[in-house]
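Regression test case RT-17, inverse folding.

Input:
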């Protein structure tokens, strides 16, 4: 299946992407993760992306589209993929339409995770990520047994630089301005399915899988 997840920062895209991709047996492709990995390794792409990320702004479309084009050309994406965090502008969405058409395929479904701004702020202020395996935790909603350490791999947990209150506010403004229009874009294509992304993580996963069932 070729699937896109959309939703505001903190909606739970990364959390759900892991479960949904495993369920569908497709690779999870997260542009945020790829950028963060490049920042951590100090690559040219990472240096380019960092200032935008730290300011809560989007990395320019051209840079992001080229990166996704390269990733979709890898063999594991040939039979389907789950995109988390891309597209998030209308020009990115129309570039993706062309990229998938070039693969001789189309996107099947765009799943929108719906949560309000207050919930986003609660989620992002308590988010912690594992340095070892990338698993996403929350100090209150999904805490590890030992504070600051990942239950899965023992890795150290850290708080993302862009989860500071003022950066989160800017990310929400950017989402409303640049990314929310994708709901209409994909709605007009008849590909959009929205689900309530509040409540326990497992319940949201079940809702997502249920919503995807009719798409095969
Ligand atoms: P990116 O990493 O994509 O950030 P984002 O879209 O802002 O999304 P987040 O990762 O913050 O949240 P999420 O929805 O994945 O939520 P999560 O599962 O972690 O992008 C970062 C930056 O990279 C951008 O600002 C931009 O600069 C750049 N970038 C990336 N893609 C780009 C693109 N296409 N174009 C241009 N620039 C791009 O969950 C959040 C917290 O909530 C966690 O602590 C989790 O444990 C908790 N949680 C999850 N589900 C639940 C639940 N059901 N109940 C309670 N808590 C929950
Ligand atoms: Zn870990």
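Golden output:
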């Amino acid at each position: 299946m070729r699937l896109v997840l959309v939703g505001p920062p903190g909606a739970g895209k990364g959390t759900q992407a892991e479960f949904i991709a495993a369920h569908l047996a497709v690779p999870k492709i997260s542009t945020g993760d790829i950028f963060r990995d490049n920042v951590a390794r100090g690559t040219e792409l990472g240096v380019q992306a960092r200032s935008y990320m730290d300011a809560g702004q989007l990395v320019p479309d051209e840079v992001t589209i080229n990166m996704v084009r390269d990733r979709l050309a890898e063999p594991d994406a040939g039979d389907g993929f789950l995109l988390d965090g891309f597209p998030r502008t209308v020009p990115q969405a129309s570039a993706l339409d062309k990229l998938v058409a070039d693969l001789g395929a189309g996107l099947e479904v765009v799943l929108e995770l719906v949560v309000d701004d207050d919930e986003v702020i609660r989620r992002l202020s308590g988010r912690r990520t594992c340095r070892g395996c990338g698993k996403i935790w929350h100090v209150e909603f999904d805490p590890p047994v030992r504070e600051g350490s990942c239950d899965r791999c023992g890795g150290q947990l850290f708080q993302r630089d862009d989860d500071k209150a003022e950066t989160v506010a800017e990310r929400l403004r950017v989402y409303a301005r640049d990314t929310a229009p994708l709901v209409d874009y994909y709605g007009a294509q008849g590909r959009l399915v929205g689900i309530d992304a509040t409540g326990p993580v497992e319940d949201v996963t079940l809702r997502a899988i249920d919503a995807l069932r009719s798409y095969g």
